[in-house]
Amino acid sequence: MRDWFKQATQPPAPPPMEETGVTNTPTRRPTTPTSQRRPSKGHRPMARYSYDKRIASHVVAAADKLRADDPVLAESLDKISAPGGWQLLRPPATAGGRPNLAIWTPVSVRTQLMDASPDLAADVDEGFAAYLAGRFTPDKPPRGRLSQGATEDRKNLNVRPDPELVQQINDSADARAEELGWKPTPGVIALAWLRHKYGL
Predict the structure, then answer these.
(1) Cα gap 135→114, rounded to integer Å
(2) 139: CB partners within 8 A, 6+ apart
(3) Which of 55, 63, 97, 102 shows a CA-CA span of 20 to 30 A to 192?
């Protein structure tokens, strides 16, 4: 009686698995990632150009052939084929390589400065150098309606000064603020110098 009750209360056994011939056959499906995104491939290094001995020998041979008829060209090729000579082929740094400094300026003053200055960047560099050397101290810029041209439309006067001078001004701004009582910025110094230089 007891054996019969035990058999009656036990759940039915699962049907036997199909014989596959493989031992330790998994009984559960493998888990799949919830995200369908492709794994990141990481940083892709930029292509590098290796030294080409054949091209280098051609440059040397060309210099040798030109040496008798055109020594100037031969000398140029000699410099290019020397170690680091490839840097001579790089274009010089232009104003486009300098960060832009936007100076918020009254339109009339902006127009006069653009007409008066042959090179605004050079003028601003001159003013920055004078300021850093202590030869020029800008006045505190007035605020609000007390500012000259406060009711006049303003536009940015875009200048590309020497970034090293700009950095020196920013680095010394806190120290100069204690001395002046206000914190000077490159834009304020530049406009003050240009007005001083051209009497505006």
Answers:
(1) 24
(2) 192
(3) 97
pLDDT of residue 82: 80
Sign (positive or negative) of CA dihedral 197, 198, 199, 200: negative
Read off the tokens for 114. Answer: 């653009």
Q: What is the pLDDT of residue 95?
A: 47
SS (H, E, C) the chain: CHHHHHHHHCCCCCCCCCCCCCCCCCCCCCCCCCCCCCCCCCCCCCCCCCCCHHHHHHHHHHHHHHCCCCHHHHHHHHHHHCCCHHHHHCCCCCHHHCCCEEEEEEHHHHHHHHHHCCCHHHHHHHHHHHHHCCCCCCCCCCCHHHCCCCCCCEEEEEECCCHHHHHHHHHCHHHHHHHHCCCCCHHHHHHHHHHHHHCC
Residue 156 φ/ψ, nearest 5 degrees: -75, 130
**Grouped pLDDT means (10 residues each) for the chain, 200 residues:** 55 56 57 52 48 81 88 84 69 63 90 91 93 90 56 85 92 90 93 93
What is the Cα–Cα distance from 74 to 61, expressed in whole angstroms? Answer: 10
Angstrom distance (rounded) from CA 159 to CA 124: 8
Which of 196, 197, 185 lies closest to 104, judged by CA?
Answer: 185
pLDDT score for 21: 54
Residue 96 Cα distances to 121, 124, 159, angstroms:
11, 16, 10
